């Protein structure tokens, strides 16, 4: 019954597969030799390779994410730059338009200045000619008087044709006639008759109240800042009569003889009269409130209701410029420009301003009064008087 250790024969009989297992031979490596690594080392080497591949994938994913983010940032930056460039192009176009208009106005001003310079040069040359003429005059008083009259008439004729100065020309003729009246020579009668004919022509001309028209235009310009725009319109406060309180409290009884009767000829009771009075007051009040709920008004230019404060400021300033241009055209007797500027001012008032306001109606009435003025007056010449003086001087 004692346990004996197994012998080698018995060990072999117990584990025959272990005894018959083939010996492990090392696998050949890449160089043709045999590797000395164990299977555990091979597993660790495979795991390290997978970890390396995973790390490379993570790095590649990071680079891809960074590239995508950078690409998005660059795309956003390009869009922002494109928007900025587009806004800059719009601003440049506006600036080009303003510069072009300023250049056109500058050219017009330069043309006017050149015309004025030419007129001034002509006046200076005429003044020099007159001075030379005064120096060359003889001591004869009649010749001196005639030369003076001729110079005064020439200047008056120029002012009459260029500036329409009728009063100045009339004063010049009167002074010339007074200068000739000092001499008792009958030879001057022909010249004085010509002066009288020219004075009659000037007196027969219709008078144009240029200062009065200019003052009316200045008054309209001063009222522009107080004129309400359509965009500034506020709800109109109701001017209806005050509401009557409901008479629900019984008052003194009316006289039965004066009380209204119903269809049968019987007088209506007092409570029925109070109910009818309360119902009429209530319905009248409700109808008045309903009328105030909705106000319909037709506007020909809907964009005038959408003016911003900046646009409203420029609308007022443009109207002022139109009226100032009309004033300049009035002083220069340019009726075409005067009429066109007044029409443009009226259109601007009707388009952007509230024509129901009292200030707007007053301004429109003043502009209509100014439009009724006639500036197209054909100015006569003083050729008869100048010819009479020159013909007298040409006689031997």
Structure description:
The chain has 396 residues and is mostly helical. The protein has helices spanning 8-14, 16-20, 39-136, 141-163, 166-181, 189-204, 210-223, 270-293, 309-331, 335-352, 358-371, 383-394. Helix 6 (189-204) runs antiparallel to helix 12 (383-394). Residues 1-36 and 235-263 have low confidence and may be disordered.
Termini separation = 192 Å
Strand proportion: under 5%
The number of distinct β-strands equals 0
Shape descriptor = flat
Order of helices and strands: HHHHHHHHHHHH
Biggest sheet layout: none
What portion of residues is helical?
A: 55-70%
Average pLDDT: 75
Poorly predicted regions: 1-36, 235-263
| Gyration radius from CA atoms, angstroms | 54 Å
Helix/strand-derived category reads mainly alpha
Helix run count:
12
Structure characteristics:
396 residues, mainly alpha, 12 helices, 68% helix, disordered N terminus
Helix/strand layout:
Elements: H1 8-14, H2 16-20, H3 39-136, H4 141-163, H5 166-181, H6 189-204, H7 210-223, H8 270-293, H9 309-331, H10 335-352, H11 358-371, H12 383-394
Helix pairs in contact: 4-5, 4-12, 5-6, 6-12, 7-9, 7-11, 9-10, 10-11
Summary, kept brief:
The protein has 396 residues and is mainly α. It is 68% helix and 0% strand.
